[in-house]
Specification:
The structure is a homohexamer of 136-residue chains.
Chain A: E1 2-14, H1 23-30, E2 39-51, H2 63-78, E3 81-82, H3 97-113, E4 118-127, E5 130-134
Parallel strand pairs in A: 1-3
Antiparallel strand pairs in A: 1-2, 2-4, 4-5
Chain lengths: 136, 136, 136, 136, 136, 136
C-alpha cells in the first residue's frame, strides 16, 4: 500500500455564527470569526489516496485525474465563494474547518473508489497555523 | 543605512466590484473576484523600515514596537473584517491588493518617522502567488 | 473522529552534553551540539487534538482555547529560555528534540482531556530539516 | 515509541514512458511527463525512523548518522542524475514518485535496523503539490 | 508607482556543459551539473510588473492576464522540457539560471508594455537555496 | 547586470544585553531577548552577488564557490556558537540582527571582489517574521 497526495487551494469567505443566536452570543462563542460582514481565508487542501502502484504506469492514480476530480467536485464549488451562502454541499452546515473537511471527504470518497484506489485522508489548512485532518 | 522587516498577517473578506456597474459587467471585468457574496484571503504583510542601528541597542527600531504599531494601526482594523464594508481607511476605495498596500502605507508612514527611522516599503501577499510592493 | 492542529513557535538555547562527561567526550558524542557556550533554535510546535466536532459550534476544540493552553503551559516556559537551565519540566532531562517533545506532551495531555477531546500528537521541528513526532 | 525525521533533497531528471510503447501512446498515458528529451524535479525526501530515545543521549538515532546514511545510500545515487538511466536500484523500474519512494525504502530499511531503531516511512515530494508516503 | 508580482512554476531538465569541451573538462568546470544524462529542477518564477493602479479597477495589470501571458510565452515552452534541446529561445545559450532569467525577460518585456505597465524584474529560483534576479 | 543569491543557514545562541547595565535595565530595554541564560535562533542567510554572466559558463559566480566562501568565512564561525562569546568578528558588538548582518557583509565584501563580481546584499532572517537587509 502506498499513499499519494495532491495539494490544491481555494480562497473563500465565511463566518462562524448561528442564525438563531444574537450577534452578542455569536461574538461571545466565536469571537472575531463571527464578524457580521464575513472574513475569509486562502485554504490549502491535501487529498491523500491509497492503493497499489499500477504495474505498467507506476501510478496509484494519475495525478492529473486526481487533480481534475478535486477541481470539479470541490475547488470549483468553493473557490471565490461564500461558504455559508454559495455552496450546495455546505447548506445548513456550520463552516468550521472541521465540518468543511468532512464535507469535502463526502464529495470525493465514492468517485475515487471507481479508480482502483481509495480516499485515505483530507488535510485542510485554514491558515498556516491551523489545520484539520479527517480519515472518514 | 540598514533595512529591517516585520511580517504580520490578517484574514479578511472582500470583493472586487464597482457598485455603479451591473453584476454582469463586474463579472466581465473582475471575474470570480466579483462574486456577489464575497470571498477572502489570508493576507501576509511585510513592513520594511530603514535607518541606522542605535549605538547602544543595535536596533534600527525595536521590533516589538514596530509590531505593535502595525497591529494597532493596520492589523486590528483589517483582521477578520470585510475590506469593502468594515474598514474606515478603505471607505470608497476599490480593495485591490495594490490599493490596500497604498492605504496601509498611509497608516504607517508618519508614526514610524517619530522613531528615528523611516518606512521603506509595504509588501502585501494576497496569496502565495500574488503580491504587491509599494515604496511611497 | 477528526484531528485539529495548532502551530506555535518558540526560540530557545540549549546544548547537548552530559555534565558528568568531559568536554572531549561530549564533543565526540554530540559534535557541535555540545558547544560549551550553547547554541539555539527557532522551534516550531504542532499540537494535534482529536475528537468529535461539537454540534452547535462545529469545533473539536476552540483553537483560541487550544492556543492559550499551549502558550500558558509550554511556550511561556520555553520561549527565549535556556532548555538546560531555565525550564522546570526539563530539569535533569537531556534536551534532545525527542525528550523535549515527550515533556511537552506531558504538560498538555491531562488539561486537554478536560475539554471533550484528547491530545493526539506533538510534532516538534528543531530546524526545517529535523523533526520529531510523539503519540504518547 | 517516538518518531524522528530527517529531510534531504536531490535534483534529478526523468521521464515517464515505456520503451515498448510508441511515443504517441506514451504521451496519451503520461502526458507531458513523457517528453522524449526528459524533464526534472527538485525532490524533497523525508526519512522517518522510530524507536526509544537512548537514556544517555536522548537520541532515537544520531541525526548526523541518519543524514550520512541517507546521503551515502540514496542522495549520492540520485542527485544530479537521470532516474531512468543512471541509477542502479532504479534499473527496469518506471520512475514514478510511487516507485521511487518504494526503492528508497529498500535501500535504507536494513541498514537502519542495525542502529537500535527502525525505518518508519519515506515521504517523497516531487513538487510542492505532489507527494508520496510509503510505510513498507 | 506600485509593483505587482505573479509567481508561476515549471519543471525542466538541463545540463551545464559546452559541446566543444570534453566530458572531463565539463565535469571539472560544472561539477555534477554536467552529468551527461541530464538532471532537472522545479523552477519557481516571479514576474514583477510596475505601473499606476487603474482608477476604476485598482489594478496595475489584471493578474489573470499577466498569468496567461507568462504561461503562453514562457511556461508552456519550458515546462516538462529539456532546456538544452527543446526550447526555441534557449537555442545556443548555456542554460545557467542567469541566462535563463535573461531570456525569460526578453520573452515578456515588449508584450507587457502594451498593457499600460512595464516589466520590472524576473526572479528565478532554481532550488530553494539558489535564485537569480534580473532587471533588464 | 544580474544578481544571484545563495541561501545558507546556521543555528546560534545569543542575548541582547549591555554588560554595563543591570539585569533590570536590560530586561526593560530588550525584554525577553535579554534572558540571562541566553536564547537562540535558526538564522537563514541570503548572500546576493552581482555581475555579468561569464560568456563560457553563463555564471556570475560558481555557486559552489560562493557557498564555500560563505561557509568558510561566515557559517563555520557562527553555526552552533554563542554570538556574544564565541565569534571573533562579533567581539564587542551587540548581536542584534542588524549588527550581525553588517558584520557578515564585512567578512565577505573583499573576497567576493576577487571573483569578477561584487557583493550586493546580505539578507538575514532571525525568525520567519523578522529579517534585515544590508547593502553596504
Amino acid at each position: 500500500m502506498i499513499y499519494i497526495t495532491r495539494k490544491e487551494h481555494f480562497n473563500a469567505a465565511h463566518k462562524l455564527a448561528r442564525p438563531e443566536w444574537s450577534d452578542e452570543k455569536n461574538i461571545e462563542v466565536f469571537g472575531k470569526c463571527a464578524n457580521v460582514n464575513w472574513h475569509g481565508h486562502n485554504f490549502n487542501l491535501h487529498v491523500t489516496v491509497k492503493g497499489q502502484p499500477n504495474e505498467l504506469t507506476g501510478f496509484v492514480i494519475d495525478l492529473k485525474l486526481l487533480s481534475s476530480l478535486i477541481k470539479d467536485l470541490v475547488v470549483e464549488k468553493l473557490d471565490h465563494k461564500n461558504l455559508n451562502l454559495d455552496v450546495d454541499f455546505m447548506k445548513g452546515v456550520m463552516p468550521s474547518t472541521e465540518n468543511l473537511a468532512i464535507k469535502i471527504w463526502e464529495q470525493l470518497v465514492d468517485v475515487i473508489k471507481q479508480h482502483n484506489c481509495e480516499l485515505h485522508s483530507i488535510k485542510l489548512f485554514e491558515t498556516e497555523n491551523n489545520y484539520v485532518e479527517y480519515y472518514g
